[in-house]
Design goal:
The structure holds two protein chains of two kinds. By secondary structure, chain A is mainly alpha-helical. Chain A is about 70% helix and about 0% strand. Chain A has one domain (about 20-210). The two termini of chain A are about 20 Å apart. Among the domains of chain B are: about 285-510, Rossmann fold (3-Layer(aba) Sandwich), CATH 3.40.50; about 525-630 and about 740-760, no CATH class. In chain B, the strands form four sheets. A six-stranded mixed β-sheet of chain B has the order 5-6-7-3-8-9, sandwiched between helices. In chain B, a hairpin with a 7-residue loop joins strand 1 (about 20-30) and strand 2. The N and C termini of chain B lie far apart (about 90 Å). The chains are: A mainly alpha, B alpha/beta.
């Protein structure tokens, strides 16, 4: 493998792909996605406690605006995909996060597991559309956006049963936009700072950063 | 050359374990220069090699290359070859056994028996053949406790022996030990060395030990290899001969050569620090009869209280250094945290000198983050988690800036300290890219730039070579001589010898372990039925048509929960069952109220709609609050893979992560402590700082957990996990009567809801 090629690829802003074969998950890929998911799960649980007040405030203004406070829960799938860059990473990361956030007890019980699957599937579809070859800001925002629709429709039936169709569609649109910005943009920033912190050295984002800042 | 090249093939494997390294070159991405260039090395069968070198010479890297796991947790350009008896290291899982430096970093499972069996599972050994091999491996390393002993209950030395047992179960030909005793107290270290000696002699293993301090290993080894700072071999031969010929040169390079006395601490210019705040020998901090307890909830639901520090008295005086020694588990680190006001004390009192009081309080625990930083500095054992800045210079200036010191003066001192510590050329480097030893030295510099009146340093000299040791001790003594009180926990005799006073702690007497209480009925269920039953609550909640029906459904659930939590049989009554359910149910109640409130406002203030919406949330959440706590991570993995046929490697990796979730809280509090004592913690004076704090802690927790994942990946791959596509399992995944009963029971509320729905429709 040629480093000069890697180096120029990284400096040109082209994403480094995961090693071939794409489905050949290494141990460090599996453990990274599992630990990331677990850490996000704890953070999700914390957000579940902190979110009530801002969500209620937005809900009073215009109920579908609660899509904004729901968007942080889409971030694990985006980051899982951006970090590992293999098929299934986004889904696995979001599902583990959902499972872990369920363990200490939340206001949603086992529904978060279903949500985790639907959100992770959405992010996974985005990375698949891009052929697991693009992991820049735009790709991240697409993944954040696509994490939303399945989840929004599921919530229509579980949480927002009393809403009319207008509210439901507005909620879907707002969750999608907020997913692109908060989970997509935020996930991209977080991945970059993790890579810069040296926490992703064995993974493509870490290689991109390190080849740009040699010591 | 070697004195012990008598090749006796191992009886167990019929193989020899001869190692051949040729032309090994390795450049990790992000470094301009390779760590090794064209390294050649041959180890005959059964040789015992001691590999030493100064800090940063690539010793651990070479071990990982020998184990064939170099690219598991790192990426870069690798060329050349490593073979064991002509095969690649990963040709057979477990061909090379690897024990890592940090105790517990390679633990995969919740119990010791299962942890040892991990490699056997990966190599597809049938389940009925596992118990004798696990028992033999545990016996070989002298772990005599029951196989279901929790891994987290082991001491550091026992965890290292467990790691050794995990490697031995796979019958390796080459055994690699990466500073196996660096983090252990002398007693535990000696026990680990003794076990290694026995095991290696009994099995005729080729062995490579990396150590900083070669003294205790010289008798064990029959060959000494020395790497210099550029990763080149500079000495190679029988240890006694190498040391006789080159001992003085090696000591000059920083290697701890046995028999050479510890170096003199570096001399700091007397102008570096200003006058201290206290007069000589005044008591800077005083702990009176301090007791600190810790409570851990066991998986069975009982609360086990341990005593970390019992009735301890201590005085640290200005201008004096005090060494805090004692075996691991004697509470040195906890006592230090209590002195710094970073850990609440259960009994007794911690007081500083009246001159050091902040806002009239002599108790550091009451102080604001900046007041604490001004007076107290703490260097934690894990310095990587305290890094808060993007460059070495900003890192070292953090506390000085938080305390509002004059920038130019503080910076001059910071640069002088970094120069002394050999970090002067790295001012603009990212501190997170430094080696572990460099990060520890940076933490020391960062702790003293603002000249705190009290310095608390936890194992500050671990992993330092002679040169950097002299620099660290020079700073400690310079600060002391400027009038600060210095307290050092240490296992290092050379540090103890330099200290003015020594305080030895004993392991406190522990309350009797609680007897396992009776288990509730629900504890007999497996993870799949628990998850499925929790999930069945969703349709039950969704189809409940009217608040009256929903209330009936909830009542049925509550009755079933009461039955599930019954604990018939002999033994003590389990405590706190109801309380635990209520704690987990509380978010559900809050959520229900919040949904009800929204419905009230939006749904035309219709009381029936409101009650229906709120109760529906409770129906969805209650079963989870009761059932989820009984899911065990290992069992979940067993069932997902064996019963649902999910791919084994992702399942095992996820179970290993779940196993570690409980450590995330500790990581969180450790980073919070480090930020608080450095003057940048959450402050009552600034709510914005609280938000910054939460962000920084979340990212810090992510970074630490990813580092743990990378280390665990190395340990797991060394035990054959990378090729474990057809795995066997230590434990079966039975579907029991209790599981069927739970499924039937959880269909009951759903049936009630569906009937109500049909009646209403």
């Amino acid at each position: 493998m040629s480093t000069t090629k890697l180096h120029t690829a990284a400096t040109r802003g082209v994403s480094i792909r995961a090693t071939r074969p794409l489905l050949g998950w290494r141990t460090v890929d599996l453990l990274t996605v599992a630990f990331l998911g677990a850490a996000f799960g704890i953070a999700y649980w914390g957000w579940g406690i902190a979110y009530e007040a801002p969500a209620k405030a937005l809900g009073l203004a215009f109920p579908p605006l609660q899509g904004i406070t729901a968007a942080p829960w889409l971030i694990a799938g985006v980051v899982g995909g951006l970090v590992i860059r293999r098929p299934g990473a986004a889904l696995l990361c979001e599902v583990i996060a959902a499972l872990v956030s369920m363990l200490p007890g939340t206001q949603w019980g086992a529904t978060v597991l279903v949500s985790g699957i639907l959100q992770g599937l959405g992010a996974e579809i985005a990375f698949a559309i891009l052929g697991y070859g693009a992991f820049g800001l735009a790709a991240a925002m697409l993944a954040g956006a696509l994490s939303a629709p399945l989840e929004a429709v599921y919530e229509w039936f579980v949480y927002w049963t009393d809403w009319g169709m207008g509210y439901k569609v507005a909620y879907l649109a707002i969750l999608t936009a907020a997913g692109a910005v908060i989970a997509g943009g935020g996930g991209w920033l977080l991945t970059r700072s993790l890579a810069r912190a040296g926490a992703l050295n064995a993974l493509p984002p870490g290689q991109e950063v390190r080849e740009q800042h040699r010591v | 050359m070697s004195g012990a090249a008598v090749a006796v093939p191992s009886m167990a494997t019929g193989a020899t374990g001869a190692v051949e390294v040729s032309g090994l070159t390795w450049r990790p991405f992000g470094r301009r220069e390779p760590i090794f260039t064209g390294l050649d090395l041959a180890l005959p069968s059964g040789q015992r090699v001691l590999l030493v070198g100064p800090s940063g010479s690539g010793k651990s890297t070479l071990l990982r290359a020998l184990a064939g796991v170099l690219q598991v947790a790192d990426s870069g350009d690798l060329s050349g070859s490593v073979t064991i008896d002509g095969q690649a290291p990963h040709a057979r899982a477990g061909l090379v056994g690897l024990v890592l430096q940090e105790p517990g970093s390679g633990v995969v499972s919740a119990t010791i028996g299962r942890d040892v069996a991990f490699g056997l599972e990966n190599t597809g050994v049938p389940r009925d053949q596992m118990p004798p091999r696990v028992a033999a491996a545990l016996q070989a390393v002298g772990l005599t406790m029951p196989e279901d002993t929790p891994t987290h209950a082991l001491s550091g030395g026992e965890q290292q022996r467990l790691a050794l047992a995990g490697a031995l179960a796979l019958e390796p030909r080459l055994l690699l030990l990466d500073e196996p005793t660096a983090m252990l107290d002398p007693g535990n270290a000696a026990a680990v060395r003794a076990v290694v000696g026995e095991v290696v002699a009994g099995r005729h293993l080729t062995t490579v030990v990396v150590e900083h301090r070669l003294g205790p290993w010289v008798d064990f080894a029959d060959r000494l290899l020395v790497l210099d700072r550029d990763g080149s071999l500079v000495a190679d031969g029988v240890p006694e001969a190498v040391l006789a010929e080159q001992g003085a040169t090696l000591a000059e390079q920083g290697i701890w050569v046995p028999g050479v006395p510890a170096p003199e601490p570096a001399a700091l210019g007397s102008a570096l620090f200003g006058p201290g705040r206290l007069g000589a020998n005044e008591v800077a901090v005083d702990a009176a009869d301090v007791t600190v307890r810790r409570s851990v909830r066991t998986i069975s639901g009982a609360t086990q209280t341990t005593v970390a520090v019992a009735g301890q008295w201590l005085q640290a005086r200005a201008g004096q250094s005090l060494a805090l020694v004692g075996p691991s588990g004697s509470g040195k680190s906890t006592l230090m945290l209590a002195l710094a006001g970073l850990m609440p004390v259960d009994e007794g009192v911690v007081r500083v000198h009246p001159t050091l009081a902040a806002h009239g309080s002599r108790h550091p625990a009451d102080w604001d983050t900046v007041d604490l930083a001004r007076t107290v500095a703490w260097v934690p054992q894990w310095s990587s988690s305290t890094i808060v800045a993007g460059t070495v210079l900003d890192e070292v200036m953090t506390t000085a800036r938080a305390c509002g010191l004059v920038e130019s003066e503080a910076q001059a001192r910071a640069v002088a300290l970094l120069d002394l510590l050999g970090l002067g050329h790295l001012l603009q480097a990212d501190p997170r890219h430094l080696s572990g030893g460099e990060q520890r030295r940076l933490a020391m510099a960062s702790a003293v730039v603002h000249q705190p009146a009290l310095l608390l340093a936890d194992e500050a000299t671990v992993g330092q070579d002679r040169l950097t040791w002299a620099a660290v001790m020079g700073i400690v003594e310079g600060l002391r001589d400027a009038g600060s009180a210095v307290l050092l926990t240490t296992h290092d005799d050379a540090v103890v010898a330099r200290c003015d006073r020594t305080l030895t702690l004993e392991r406190p007497a522990q309350p009797a372990p609680v007897v396992a209480p009776r288990r509730p009925l629900v504890a007999r269920c497996g993870p799949l039925s628990l998850l499925a039953a929790s999930t069945l609550a969703i349709p039950a909640g969704v189809v409940s048509p009217h608040w009256t029906v929903t209330l009936v459904v909830l009542a049925v659930q509550a009755a079933l929960a009461a039955v599930a939590l019954l604990a018939p049989g002999e033994g003590p009554r389990p405590q706190g069952r109801l309380r635990r359910v209520l704690v987990r149910f509380l978010p559900g109640v809050v959520g229900g109220l919040s949904v009800a409130w929204s419905t009230w406002l939006l749904g035309g203030r219709d009381l029936e709609l409101t009650a229906g919406a709120g109760l529906r949330v409770l129906v969805i959440v209650l079963p989870s609050a009761v059932l989820i706590p009984f899911i065990d991570a290992d069992a979940l993995g067993d069932h997902l893979a064996q019963r649902l046929g999910l791919p084994p490697r992702p399942v095992v990796a996820s179970a290993a992560a779940l196993q570690r979730v409980h450590t995330f809280g500790d990581i969180w509090s450790e980073i919070a402590r480090a930020r608080r004592v450095r003057g940048i913690g959450a402050s009552r004076r600034s709510p914005r700082a609280v938000l910054d704090e939460i962000g920084a802690l979340t990212v810090g927790m992510l970074i630490r957990s990813l580092q743990a994942a990378a280390t665990l990946a190395v340990a797991m791959d060394a035990r054959g996990f990378s090729t474990a596509y057809r795995r066997t399992w230590w434990a079966a995944a039975p579907w029991r009567g209790a599981d069927s009963a739970l499924m039937a029971a959880s269909l009951l509320p759903l049936a009630v809801a569906a009937l109500g729905h049909a009646a209403a429709g």
